[in-house]
Amino acid sequence: MSTKGIIKGRRATTSVLMYAVLILGGIVMFAPMLWTLSTSLSRDSVIISHRLIPTDITFENYVNAWSFPQSFSRNTNLGTFFLNSIFVSAMITAPALIIDSLAGYVLARRDIPGRNLLFYMALATMMIPFYVIAVPLFLVVRKLRWLDTYQGMIVPFLASGFGIFMFRQFFQTIPKELEDAALVDGCSAWRIYWSIMLPLSKPVLGTMTVFKIMWSWNQFFWPLLIINKIELKTLSLALTMFRGLNVTMWGVLCAGLTLATIPIVIVYLLIQDTFEKGIVMGALKG
């Protein structure tokens, strides 16, 4: 066999192995989601089923899951928690994108004293587990009388070291001449940021939008600490009510989990291309 034939054979073998590993990884990742969907569409039971494909499809679990919270409070249903999660996620994501991008722009393009020190301090926040600062943050929120309030869930997460890092790395790749031309035309620093830098950062904006929505939507530990009123609970926190002390109705629980997953999937599908461009750009230029 020639050398070229041996090389082609090795490449084919490598490709087969690579795709086999990817398919196996996909199955491992998708199997829990398929089980959740299958259980939500099956007849409700207190016994855990291991079927990945439902035999008797019913949507009764979704109806029961939607009205289940009324057993705790007459004025609540799953929609109440959906609205809370949507509001908290939106009020964290939109302002956080502006704050992170502004900080990233200043640290990347403005000559201010201690710029590098400020950047390293922002990076340092990524290395500290949230559980380390949870108690001090709780004391601050209690002092501000923000327990059982929306602002208590929103304000502490309006900026992130990861977002500042992503925007700073991107803004550093934009040619300085573009900014100089805008200054010659009479643009202020704010106008340069808002009209030039921010529109150019759409890939990073898309990436951070997905991350911010996902992080805020899936928050559990922090709302668990500061929220006691049932009407203010977010969806991830409210789903704990579906699990009983002695008995768990798995069909209803999985229906609630499926409904909670749908908004994140929709957001990702809407900005999938922008998200992937931002991830690739961060890998190449970060």
Describe the model.
The protein contains 14 helices and no strands. The chain is 70% helix and 0% strand. Helix 3 runs antiparallel to helix 10 (202-217) and helix 4 packs across helix 7. The longest helix is centred in the N-terminal third of the chain and has 38 residues, at 3-40. The chain has helices at 3-40, 60-67, 78-109, 115-124, 130-143, 150-154, 161-171, 176-184, 189-200, 202-217, 221-226, 235-238, 250-270, 272-285. The protein starts with a helix and ends with a helix. It has two domains: 3-60; 66-285, MetI-like fold. The chain is mainly α and 286 residues long.
Attribute tags:
286 residues, mainly alpha, MetI-like fold, 70% helix
Mean pLDDT: 86
Give the CATH H-level superfamily of the largest domain.
Answer: MetI-like
Provide the domain count.
2
Cα shape: flat
Helix and strand layout, with pairings?
Layout: H1 3-40, H2 60-67, H3 78-109, H4 115-124, H5 130-143, H6 150-154, H7 161-171, H8 176-184, H9 189-200, H10 202-217, H11 221-226, H12 235-238, H13 250-270, H14 272-285
Helix pairs in contact: 1-13, 2-13, 3-7, 3-10, 4-7, 10-14
Summarize the structure.
This protein is an all-alpha fold and 286 residues long.
